[in-house]
Specification:
It is built from 12 helices and no strands. It is mainly α. Helix 1 packs across helix 3 and helix 4 crosses helix 8. The termini are far apart. This is Fatty acid hydroxylase domain-containing protein. Keywords: Membrane, Transmembrane, Transmembrane helix. Pfam families: FA_hydroxylase.
Length: 282
């Protein structure tokens, strides 16, 4: 129908607007303007994702390893430059594939296959925030089980997720490890963001923002600093995940781990470690 086509064009216009903002500031128009819309969108996502990864990673490392040295982490807990460069190398190899997922999701939205809507004004503010909350619950549930199965199904762990788990000690984890995955592993863990589009109505730009916030969030949960803000799945919880391999699979919160019996609290872990140290000293 003409009305439907006109409505879907709002999504195309919006993605074209984002493409122009990013690409016109980073590349000569002769390089990107002749490309089909899908490729322009992928190039925009790739360049924006890469910039976000480096900017968030470098700023966070500068803050915790230089400005706040010995405040949050002791010098011997800081990963080596070699470890961080390896993490960057792995992430950069995967980045073209990571950014293909939001490009595909934007294509599906532009085609009218999802429940996305274009303008916030199309729904009430109450419904807008309820839909975001529902979306995040679905994403949290999906990422938890995807992550858990990447551990429990041995071939998936061996051929995909083990690439990320070579960083298994405090002095090998850094904000740059947040996207250091096998490409398929990273895509699988982001798929719940796309699946949720078919279940709950969500504002288009909000969906894109939440998807790209993943880069900042994953940098944060790999810095080994325990924020201790309930019920947030902070770096203290995620560091335990990297050392035990069988706890704290959640993403934003600890709720799924609490519900499904895989939660391990970093404060209790610290108490247990102190008890063990005392017994050894005796």
């Amino acid at each position: 129908m003409a009305v439907d086509a006109a409505y879907l064009m709002q999504f195309v216009d919006e993605t074209s607007f984002y493409n122009r903002i990013v690409l016109s500031h980073l590349l000569p128009s002769t390089l990107w303007d002749p490309l089909p819309h899908f490729l322009q969108t992928w190039l925009r996502n790739y360049l924006a994702g890469t910039l976000l990864y480096f900017i968030s990673g470098f700023l966070w490392c500068f803050y915790i390893y230089y400005l706040k040295l010995n405040v949050y982490l002791s010098k011997d807990a800081i990963p080596t430059r070699k470890a961080m460069l390896l993490q960057i190398y792995v992430a950069m190899k995967a980045m073209p594939w990571y950014t293909l997922l939001p490009t595909v999701s934007e294509y599906m939205i532009e085609s009218g296959w999802t429940k996305c809507y274009s303008r916030v004004g199309e729904v009430s503010w109450i419904l807008y925030f309820v839909s975001i909350a529902t979306y995040l619950v679905l994403v949290e549930f999906g990422i938890y089980w995807m992550h858990r199965e990447l551990h429990d199904i041995k071939p998936l762990y061996k051929y995909l997720h083990a690439t990320h788990h070579i960083y298994n000690k405090q002095n090998t984890l850094s904000p740059f490890a947040g996207l250091a995955f096998h490409p398929l592993d990273g895509i699988l863990q982001a798929v719940p963001h796309v699946v949720a589009l078919f279940i709950v109505p969500i504002h288009f730009t909000t969906h894109l923002g939440l998807l790209f916030m993943e880069a900042i969030w994953t940098a944060n949960i790999h810095d080994c600093i325990h924020g201790n803000i309930w019920p947030v799945m902070g770096a203290g919880y995620h560091t335990i995940h990297h050392t035990t391999y069988k706890h704290n699979y959640g993403h934003y919160t600890i709720w799924m781990d609490w519900m499904f019996g895989s939660l391990r609290d970093p404060l209790l872990e610290e108490v247990d470690n102190n008890k063990d140290s005392s017994k050894k000293a005796e």
